[in-house]
Amino acid sequence: MDRAQPKLKVLSIFGTRPEAIKMAPLVKALAAEPGIDSRICITGQHQSMLQQVLDMFELKADYTLDVMTPGQTLNTLTAALYAAIDPVLEHVQPDKVLVHGDTTSAMVAAMSAFHRRIPVAHIEAGLRTGDIHQPWPEEMNRRCIDLISDYMFAPTEQSRRNVLGERLQGVSFVTGNTVIDALKITAERIDSNPQLRASLDSQFSFIDPSRKLLLVTGHRRENFGDGFIDICKALRTLASRDDIQIVYPVHLNPNVLGPVTEHLGDLPNVHLIKPLDYLSFIRLMQLAHVVLTDSGGVQEEAPSLGKPVLVMRDVTERPEAVAAGTVRLVGTDPDNIVRGVCALFDDEHLWRMASQSANPYGDGHACARIVDALMGRPVDEFVVETLNRRPETSEAQRPPVTQRSVSSVY
Description:
This protein is α/β, with parallel strands linked by helices. Helix content is 44%, strand content 14%. α10 (254-264) links the parallel β9 and β10.
C-alpha cells in the first residue's frame, strides 16, 4: 500500500497591514491546496489593524510575535525580529518560507530562513527605483530579499526584467500582484451586498455629494519633516476650491499625525479621520474622484477601481502604472501637487483617460499562479496585454515610463 505523499510545509511571515492585505488571499489559497500544510507567523507591527484584515479574511495566526516598543529604531527592531523569528523556524521546520514586499520584518524573516538553508519565496519581487535611498529603507530591503530568494514572484514583466538583469540565482515567475486578488474579492463583496454598502457609507455621512472627493493617504518615512509640511501646504491651497472636498485617513505615527493635524485641522472641507479597516477604505476609494498618495499599494489598487492616482514621491518602484497613464508622479512640491490635482478635476477628458487605462498589476489570479509554482506545476504567467484594453485610451496616448518626478504634470 502506497504511503500518502507528505505535505509541503509553508510558513508565511508578515507583520504590517499592507502585507496582511496582500498575503491574506494567498494564505487562503495555500490552505485550500491539499498538498500544502500552511502556517502563519505575524510579527505585529500594526497589530490592531492587522487583526482586522485577518478577521475579514477569516484567518488565524499560528504564531504572533511581540517585537514592537515605543521609539524603536530600525536597528533595535531588526535585532528583536531576529531573536523572535528564529525559534519559530526551529519549531515549524518549514519546507519554504514566504515573505512579502520590502519591510524590515520581511527582510529579517528571509535572512533568518536563509541562515537555516530554508528556501525563501518572495511575493512582489523585483520592484526597483534604482536609488538605494528612495524609498528608504524599503529599496535595500527588497534587493536583499531577492538576492537570497529561491522563488521570486514578480507582479509584472518589468519586475522580472529587473531581477533577471541582476543575475540572481532564484527562479522567477510573472504572477500579477496579489493585492488585485484581495481587491477583487473585497469589491465584489461590497457590490453584491446592499446592506453592507449602506453600513459602510454610514461612516462617511459627512461627505458632501455636491463636491468631488479627493482621497489622500500619506505615511512614507522619507516624507517625514519638510515633506509633510509641503503636502499640507498643497492641501490647504486645494481646500480653498469650493468644488473639492478632501478626506484624509491619517496614520497614527506622530511624524504624520502632528503636522497634518496642526496645518489642516481647522479647514471645514478637509476631513481628517482615523485609519480605516480595509473594507471601509476600499469603499472610500470607490467614492473618490482622484487619489493623492505616497503609498505603494494604493498605486496598484486604485487603477482597478478606475481612479486616477497622483503619487507624492520623487521616484516609484511601480513604473508600469505611469506608463499606462493611471499614475503621475508629483513629488511633495506644493505647486506640482496643486497643478496635478487641479488638472484632473478641471479636465474631464484627462480624468477619463487616466481612469480608463488598463491596470498593469494583475487579473485576480496571482495567488493561484504562486500555489502552482510552489507545487511544481506549470504556471500560466500573467501577461498585461491579455487584459481588456479600454477603447478610449490608445498605446500612443500613454506617456513613456518614467521614475523621476517632473516639474509639470499633464
